[in-house]
Design brief:
Mean pLDDT: 90
Strand content: under 5%
GO molecular function: heme binding; lactoperoxidase activity; metal ion binding; peroxidase activity
Low-confidence stretches: 1-23, 27-36
Order of helices and strands: HEHHHHEHHHEHHEHHHH
Largest sheet: 2 strands, antiparallel
Catalytic activity: 2 a phenolic donor + H2O2 = 2 a phenolic radical donor + 2 H2O
Pfam family, one: peroxidase
Helix content: 40-55%
Protein name: Peroxidase
Organism: Sorghum bicolor (Sorghum)
Radius of gyration: 20 Å
Structural class: mainly alpha
Number of helices: 14
CATH topology of one domain: Peroxidase, domain 1
Amino acid sequence: MALRQQQQQLLVVVVVAAVVVASCRPGRADPAAMSVLPGLPVAGLAVGFYNESCPQVEDLVLAEMQSLVGKDKTIGPALLRFMFHDCLVRGCDASIMLISRNKTGERDAIPSYGLRGYDEIEHIKAKVEDACPLTVSCADIIIMAARDAVYLSNGPRYAVETGRRDGKVSLDCDANNDLPPPSSAIVDLKTYFSFKGLGWKDLVVLSGSHTIGRAQCSTFASDRLYNYSGRVAQDPSLNKTYAAHLRELCEPGVANDAAMVEMDPSSPYTFDLSYYRAVRGNTGLFTSDQALLDDPWTRAYVERMAAAGASTDEFFADYAAAMTNMGRIEVLTGDNGEIRKVCAAHVD
């Protein structure tokens, strides 16, 4: 128990330090009103927060997600990624939706290149507004849409906490600073996550999100295929057969190569354990995927999930817990933030 308390105290120090050193954080709410350690409950968040004010909201979101995914199976994974980009930058406050006329918002940051989901979240929000005007935040809709994206890919439909309010600030420097690039090594990944109050288990479990969806060649081809560590070579940790396949899809020397590659080719739209089998077999798409083998704790988890006969039950339970932890990052509740009628408001 004493060790656990020391670890939690250290983690709080790390998170607070991250907030202090960040250089582009105007407009932040009172820290006492936000979650400091995502593993702990947050005042103002609750499962069923809208039970009285908008009891049908989760059914509405699911129905719209079913319609969207039915028309385009790639939009589910895209909306799952959308939640990551929102929550890891200024917390889960829908600041990714805000528009900067000066092109200095989160949308305009380098990591947001190719991000999809803006129109879909706005569409879902409009449906919710018709039923419950000015009641449900855009931030909560992003959380619910991500959960249903997992569910509609044959993953778990876990309970989500709601009660967030929408933030009013969106800065590209926050996104540039806070989102770990796909070329990250394990030490960097653990540092990024620890700044958000997330641990090694959250890292390895949430990385499992790459079991669905696609990525642009520009996000991995340079460092994995053509210019590893600046030496004009292939990453030696990448399976050679898989690398040859990727080179057929991704051209060398194209900085913004928008060609799409499935992140988990064996089952790209099924939420399962094949991602971990790919990582164990050195066919993880990103450097950050393969980096999970470079830490004894994350490696052990990968190997357990990749083992023959492994059940999804443990992964699904862990995933629900990790998504809950991420959903608690720096949230605005109570009198902080606002409930916007339109998510894509202008900030300048």
